[in-house]
Specification:
mainly alpha
Amino acid sequence: MRICVLLTFLGAVLLAWFVYEKIKKYSVKAAILKSLVSVLFISVALFGWHSGEGSGELFGLLFVLGLVFGLLGDVWLDLKYVFPEENTLFTYAGFCVFGVGHI
């Protein structure tokens, strides 16, 4: 339980840092921070799923997969800022991954 609280706190701190960087100006640093925040929150979900009683195995799996697809969608959408000439490709790829995650 303490690990989940620590990861959540660390994720909240990184989230605040990401928002600060994103407001200043978009940068690769902001994209990396956003990905780290997502990885930490996925870690919290994995720890929670692992420590459960097993009554929601399928729900836990779907929840974690949804978070992973959200992370992948964020990465694809952030790549359009790194490679502006491929804006359309990365935008559609990010939307498709988000769509799969929402299903």
